[in-house]
Amino acid sequence: MKRFTLKEIGQQLNLSPGTISKALNDSHEISAETKKLILDFTQKINYIPNFSAKSLKTGRSNTLAIIVPFISSSFFFDFYEDISHILSQTNYKLILLQTFNDEKKEKEALELCVQSNIEGVIISPVKNDSSLSLLFYMMEQVCPVIIFDRINHQLDTFKIGIQNNKVIYQATEEMIKNRRENIILLLCKDIGGNVSRIKGYKDALFNAGVPFKEENIIEISYSSPKDNIDDELESKISTLLNRPFAPNALLSTTDTLSLKVLHILNKLKVKIPDDMNLIGFSNTPFANSLNPSLTTITQPTQLMAEKSVELLLQMLKKKNKKNYFEFETYFLDCSIEHRKSTSSL
Amino acid sequence: MKRFTLKEIGQQLNLSPGTISKALNDSHEISAETKKLILDFTQKINYIPNFSAKSLKTGRSNTLAIIVPFISSSFFFDFYEDISHILSQTNYKLILLQTFNDEKKEKEALELCVQSNIEGVIISPVKNDSSLSLLFYMMEQVCPVIIFDRINHQLDTFKIGIQNNKVIYQATEEMIKNRRENIILLLCKDIGGNVSRIKGYKDALFNAGVPFKEENIIEISYSSPKDNIDDELESKISTLLNRPFAPNALLSTTDTLSLKVLHILNKLKVKIPDDMNLIGFSNTPFANSLNPSLTTITQPTQLMAEKSVELLLQMLKKKNKKNYFEFETYFLDCSIEHRKSTSSL
DNA sequence: CTGAAAGCGCTTACAG
DNA sequence: CTGAAAGCGCTTACAG
């Protein structure tokens, strides 16, 4: 077994390399007999084409990229799996890149895409203006870019995200209906969607006539699921619990925080749901097997993935038509999955 | 902003493309001043090289591949993350490919590696002889291959796996010491390591003088974590539970099965650990937050990842020396993490 | 220290 | 329907 080139195959079959190439690409220029001859032979020798040569010549790679902050975050993981599954039914391959919430790594990831002739990018960017000029350049000259999840980014393109304020409003409203009015809102610091989340929270309180307390908003600063924020989180929660009017509900707005806070509340012997209602933001499939099972806000991951791919493929089809698209931002609805960590008093 | 080629940069600076290339690769042939001139300019214009051209010319890609059955399985996920982290400290890039336990997909994945000039592969193969000739060809002519996890594969190379029989022996022994003698051993059908697992299980029973019962071994056939095996699993467990001498311990040997079985036992109102001790095979970080927290057999994932990369890099260094290596198989030790799903009677 | 030139393995416009 | 030839953007052995 040895690796053949088109030239060598041509020599073996007394045909030119160009003819072999055309046959393998099923060109209408080549006769059926010649095609069969060539295909039989290439199959026999298990011809494996040289991807770099093809890509260099054509400028195409048949590969899309998905760029996420952390693949270990279950939402991003699910999203990746969904994209991966959808693309497996097309001719496109997919590569996964992580930024670790680091602008430099993001730039490297995008440059890798340019280097590798990537044909389309789906990205949840590090910050609202991260890699802005590079992304703009890519949109103009390299390939279409779709932004998901962190849709406050300034690039003008299609964006797919969720109705943060709406779902936080619903969750808050539900807790109030359950007679839980002293609600902690737990946020990851400096995330684009926080403004919208706080708005949903405040609006729900306001409409129910519940006074807003500044101290009930906890922001934790971390950039990786592996950052050690447990102590800080525990101390902030303890402080609130030891106040005269201890909170009786907690709404956690990221995946990472939800699991940590459950663990901490268990450790602090806070009874869930009796003493504290808990709603997490999470896509973990284990929510059902947690102790107690966790009521979660679930993002419509699959829908987001489908829409992202759909829009990207649309843009790929019209690739040479500048200003062809009216870019839109899609806000999808989340749902609340009720489990044992919430109940009425 | 526009994409430059070396030729264009040469024109701008009145230098030849070759000189630009050498300067960017920090060749000793180029003077310090010229290098500075070129680097300043390429930085200014944000020169992004064409990867395909480089790869075509050199036959190298600076990229390694990891091929796993399912990235959604937490062991493979952790392993991938570890490999990814280790390689981020080198010059190598990493691509992730999944086989979904499908030999055809595995072949495609490996061919993609060949096409893309991948320089090394770390794989957990589908079956003991899957893609054997292709893997052999790759080892001979393309790049080194390391096998991990499913180390019964017939390819002659370095392999990194675990001491299945030893850890299953320990877990079984522990259960017996806890006076749990009627132990279900739960296996995924047709996995290479099962022989060794069953041996560990039987040996521990034998040495403790506990009679072996064929019916206590349950094999479930599935190839994906998403396969719907819940009903089958539930019915098989129910059957055993309804026997005159109901089992009082369960040892689950895969990640997927461990979480499912916990869920089913909870559903069947079996009290854990009182009525049933449960040890799972799992790397999930949530084991602590499960209901009840799950005693697990944990694979030394990071060690396995480190060893895999170490061996691969060693082989890469000596790439042109055939028969340079005495291939070995490494069997690493697992540990048992005790949590609330096990206790003595 | 710099440059000219060949060539990696494909594809494709063009010729016949 | 098939082939000859140019060229994608790099690298590198060789010349000077």
Describe the structure.
The structure is a homodimer of 345-residue chains. In chain A, the strands form two sheets. Chain A has a six-stranded parallel beta sheet with strand order 2-1-3-4-5-11, with helices on both faces. A six-stranded mixed beta sheet of chain A has the order 7-6-8-9-10-12, sandwiched between helices. Helices cover 42% and strands 16% of the residues of chain A. The longest helix of chain A has 17 residues, at 301-317. Chain A has helices spanning 6-13, 17-24, 32-44, 51-58, 74-87, 103-115, 132-142, 164-177, 194-207, 230-241, 255-267, 301-317, and strands at 63-68, 93-98, 120-123, 145-148, 159-162, 183-188, 217-220, 249-252, 277-281, 295-298, 329-332, 335-337. Chain A is of the alpha/beta class. Chain A starts with 5 loop residues before the first helix and ends in an 8-residue tail after the last strand. Chain A folds into three domains: 6-49, Orthogonal Bundle (434 Repressor (Amino-terminal Domain)), CATH 1.10.260; 62-162 and 302-334, Response regulator (Rossmann fold), CATH 3.40.50.2300; 164-298, Response regulator (Rossmann fold), CATH 3.40.50. In chain A, α7 (132-142) links the parallel β3 and β4 (145-148). Chain A has twelve helices and twelve strands. The interface between A and B is large, with 46 and 46 residues. The structure holds a DNA duplex (16 and 16 nucleotides).
Can you lay out the helices and strands and say which pair or pack?
2 copies of one chain form a homodimer.
Chain A: H1 6-13, H2 17-24, H3 32-44, H4 51-58, E1 63-68, H5 74-87, E2 93-98, H6 103-115, E3 120-123, H7 132-142, E4 145-148, E5 159-162, H8 164-177, E6 183-188, H9 194-207, E7 217-220, H10 230-241, E8 249-252, H11 255-267, E9 277-281, E10 295-298, H12 301-317, E11 329-332, E12 335-337
Helix pairs in contact in A: 1-2, 5-12, 6-7, 8-9
The first copy, chain A, binds a DNA duplex (16 and 16 nucleotides) through helix 2 and helix 4.
Domain HTH cro/C1-type (chains A, B): 2-48
Pfam families (chains A, B): LacI, Peripla_BP_3
Organism (chains A, B): Sphingobacterium paramultivorum
